[in-house]
Amino acid sequence: GLAEGAKNQFSTFSNFITTISQKKEGIGNRNSPTQLVIPTIKNGRDLPPLCLDVRQKQRMSIDTLPQELKAPFPPEPSLPIRTKTVKDFQDDVEKSKASGDWKAVHYFYSTTFDSFLEINAAFKKDTNSPFNTIEDSGIDAKFVNVVYDALLNTPQDVQKSVLKGIINGLLQEWTGPRTKDDLRAYCILLQNPQFSNTSTYVIYAHLLRQIAALTEADHHFLVHWSKKISQRRFKQVVDRLLQFISLRLFPAKPEEFPPMVKCTWWIPSATKVLALFNAANSLISPPIISYTDFYNSTLDHIDLMEEYHNWQCYGNSHRFSFCQYPFIISIAAKKVIIQRDSEQQMISIARQSLVDKVSRRQKPDMNMLFLNVKVRRTHLVSDSLDELARKRADLKKKLKVTFVGEAGLDMGGLTKEWFLLLIRQIFHPDYGMFTYHKDSQCHWFSSFKCDNYSEFRLVGALMGLAVYNSITLDIRFPPCCYKKLLSPPIVPCDHNTLVGICGVTLDDLFQIMPELAHGLNELLSYEGNVEEDFYSTFQVFQEEFGVIKSYNLKPNGDKIPVTNQNRKEYVQLYVDFLLNKSIYKQFAAFYYGFHSVCASYALLLLRPEEVEILVCGSPELDMSALQRSTQYEGYQKTDLTIRYFWDVVLGFSLDLQKKLLHFATGSDRVPVGGMADLNFKISKSETSTNWLPVAHTCFNQLCLPPYKNKKELKQKLIIGISNAEGFGLE
């Protein structure tokens, strides 16, 4: 009903569109977006950047603006007196439903939304209070929610009156900066559920355009006010914005919208407003909604490499690209960008090698196009270290592994095996490079000092090669590791610049050493006399090869007692020492190893959590999803052997399911796209049923003989997957 009613109304909107376009001329279009940078405001916390720039970002403070650019805050105009309460409104709605007479409700809606002043008069908690701080928007959220919840159940003429009122508000003549009442009105209008309907998108687009064009200071207020919206309403606003972008990109009925050439500013405006909500979400711990709720899967179907190249060429200058707002790009889409960027680098390096060979009049060799790693199983780490150090110039070529003395040909399977065995050996506690923490079930860097940190560089290079060659690794690093790995995301030109150093908190320590973090938290909340009862100083003691060594957390720290007044500083310095300073050389080598392979602007698009997923895949196994996506060769999914197989596999323990996945694919981790991305295939093996199953890990293929019963299949399958190391040809 709303769609038809509002659509008929659009014939009268032509003047509105023309007028508002003239008023907003120069604000910007898709080719000239306004970069959203949050200023430093007194009494306001720093916000995450809304827009990512390849170049150095600068934060602007209102206090540092030239005098001629400073504008005084305009006085708040006096508001009309409106006394209707939530209960009064609800009573009016109930009476209208019972009698069929909606006059009172119609009058309320048409009056309330007729202007920004009326919106404030209705929904401001106290019309006599300014509410001009970031901490309190002054909006009566309960009243707003009740009014919007009732709106979609009212007659069409009531709903039309709201849209007309919003148009009136958007058409107001503005001079100077917006008042806080204006910002309150924008915050309220964004929550209007009518904007879920495509027939209202013209109005919605102009609302978004005005909000996107606000000053940085106004955005700062909107971000802090938005974080106070309830989780459900917050998610609804985000979903509406994502839907708006998706339907503008791929409209179900193109005739519903103006031609794309006339509204190129729609998508940039919506994306910028979405960036405000992403910033608000990042301010809360835990966040209001998951960062994945900002993903727009529709973008998986556009030309991502064009977006990426535009961003590389133009940065955040005067050309819009979704890569400026990476929070909206799904991890699957980012993986595509990284893979294609990697492939282009591989091709470029290989081509250069070929040209160099020909220019020297030497015979080209196919092996020169690959990073060929030849290792002995008995000397796996040392051989790998030597090979990667010797062939550092070839790291960006396609990886090919050969195990000395084995006939296996690397079509991908030997590479997976090499990664798996190398990681297993390097992370073994006896090797001493990493410490395994049982409480958190993760590894962390050993702080022991050594003369050579090349093996840490090897581990970093291995992680980089895994991402570069689309291999998932079974590495259990805490989230803090990936945050450090992106600090900074691009290797600095100045080698004296510190790398791998990031802001760390007690929460980061909880994810590695929960018992120690709990003790430090107890210190912070201790109500007694810290200095007398704990008798601690700004000093840390660590055991290294049986010797206790002490380190000062600050100059003369051994002489500075920890007190109730300075305990927060002590805890922060302690955490920083453990996660940054004590392992700096180890992590710096690891950082440079990773970036020696993965140096790419594409890393700027990634969150630390996304790097972890790219490196490790997902540990969550869904064998039912694997069953649904499996392909068959020589079998039908209804064949008895296949039914036996899935009955057995779905009944396996998690450990056996991981062994099966490792046996068939070379890894027990699930790739970014889920089980369907494995392209798992079961083929019929025309051999004796006395034979064990055989796997071609290069192709994620399992060759299964037609076993006669479930018991025999289970027995042979368990033997096969439990003895799955090494490659050979009969």
Automatic annotation (TrEMBL):
Assigned EC number: 2.3.2.26
InterPro entries linked: E3A/B/C-like (IPR044611), HECT_dom (IPR000569), Hect_E3_ubiquitin_ligase (IPR035983)
This protein's pathway: Protein modification; protein ubiquitination
Active site: C698 (glycyl thioester intermediate)
Gene Ontology MF annotations: ligase activity; ubiquitin protein ligase activity
Reaction equation(s) it catalyzes: S-ubiquitinyl-[E2 ubiquitin-conjugating enzyme]-L-cysteine + [acceptor protein]-L-lysine = [E2 ubiquitin-conjugating enzyme]-L-cysteine + N(6)-ubiquitinyl-[acceptor protein]-L-lysine
Boundaries of every HECT domain copy: 391-730
Keywords: Ligase, Phosphoprotein, Transferase, Ubl conjugation pathway
GO biological process, one term: protein polyubiquitination
Annotated function: E3 ubiquitin-protein ligase which accepts ubiquitin from an E2 ubiquitin-conjugating enzyme in the form of a thioester and then directly transfers the ubiquitin to targeted substrates.
Protein name, as recorded: Probable E3 ubiquitin-protein ligase HECTD2
Organism in which the protein naturally occurs: Menura novaehollandiae
Higher taxonomy: Eukaryota, Metazoa, Chordata, Craniata, Vertebrata
